[in-house]
Amino acid sequence: MPKLSPAQAPEVKLDAGAAAIEASLTVEQRRGLFEKPGTTVVAIVELTSKSYTGHAEGEEKEPQVKVRVTGCEVARSDAEAATLLEAKRCMWRARRMDGTLDEVGPGPRDPEAVIGDAFANYPSEDEYRAHERAREQRRRDEYVR
After folding, report:
1. Other CB atoms closer than 10 Å to residue 73's CB: what's the count?
2. How far apart are CA 98 and CA 95, in angstroms?
3. pLDDT digits (tens, 9 = 90+) for 25-74
4. Among 11, 35, 72, 115, which residue has the least CB neighbours within 10 Å?
5. What residues have CB less than 8 Å from 50, skipping those under 6 apart?
6. Distance (Å, rounded) from C-alpha 40 to C-alpha 33?
């Protein structure tokens, strides 16, 4: 694992794998992005580092890390978008107040607490699994008939 000096901040580049984003967009969102330049969609994106360069001592390259979008969910309504944007503003204000705006890595606050109330009526992971099991059972029952 490479170690950087405290003064170094690696450049972050996205790799070409954006399938997670595409899979999260509805047909209407895709068409809107294509037909109306400047259209904005709001999403929760998960990034995973995949490669790095410029880490060897005496190497002239600036440090760089390549990340891939490994998870993405796009807001499907104006209310969801507004909630995610407010969560983003809350997290930005907290980082600004804590003096961590330029820090690398997880911040001192839990982002789930910011949006927990807004998404309280959405299915839990257990409810989702139960739904999937029931759907699969219905599919099997149909196959048996």
Report:
1. 16
2. 5
3. 999 999 998 999 899 999 999 989 888 877 666 667 788 888 888 889 99
4. 35
5. 15, 66, 67, 68
6. 7
